[in-house]
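COMPLEX REQUEST
Ligand: S-adenosylmethionine
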Amino acid sequence: MHPPGLLKEMRTQPMDTPHWFLDEVAHAGREHLDPTYVPTYDDRAGTDPAEDLAVLRAQGLNETHTLVDLGSGTGTFALAAAPFCRRVVAVDVSPVMLERLREKVARRGVENIECVQAGFLTYAHQGAPADVVYSRHALHHLPDFWKALALTRIAAILKEGGIFFLRDLVFSCDSRDTPQAVGAWLAKAPTDPASGWTRAELATHLREEYSTFSWLLEPMIERAGFAIRATQHSDSQTHSAYTCIKTS
Ligand SMILES: C[S@@+](CC[C@H](N)C(=O)[O-])C[C@H]1O[C@@H](n2cnc3c(N)ncnc32)[C@H](O)[C@@H]1O
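STATUS: Structure written out below.
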């Protein structure tokens, strides 16, 4: 349970947010707001940022660039990317996740990462347009209607020709084949919570979060003003990654 005052503070929306907007904190995932869970996040997630960083470096990411990481969490990717960028903006709706990142930034003496508490739907980019927007395992917190609006906002903060890299839990199977794909995915989940997300946690993800199908997400990405340059679908048909270029 969160102290009531803390949740109220977390829920504060910028003044100009329309009253009908989704409450992004309420959809952020309880665990990401939990000060007892967040310190365990990095070990459990075991994220290796090397592959995504290599993709972005191959696409031209360099020391003159501004990179925005949306749903940065504890900042594993932001910290890995910082030496190759001029400016990194790590954006997350959870103050608890961001506090963890701030501690790492201070401990390592990193000077080019800014931490901003905001969501996909509320982040107001300042300064030169972003060269790169990166987002990993975060967009699924929004239902599809809101994903479409978030993708449009991402296009708006990027420069023309800028790169958007998205990695998320996205199902690339046909809806008819979903029970088999999900069954195989859950069957492979570890039983020890220390080694990753358990079967029960993955089932909670399916029930309470908003992973979508690749064949719904891809037209949304294109309609927001991107050309998809490269697509990866995992063999399990449960995860996808997209390298996109802003075209309009
Ligand atoms: C599974 S974690 C992924 C964190 C990090 N990107 C990684 O790969 O380790 C999901 C993150 O998305 C954040 N999040 C959830 N909804 C969000 C939203 N609407 N806007 C921005 N961040 C959000 C959560 O607070 C959490 O830090």
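REMARKS: Residues 1-9 have pLDDT under 50 and may be disordered. The CA atoms of residues 94 and 116 lie 10 Å apart.
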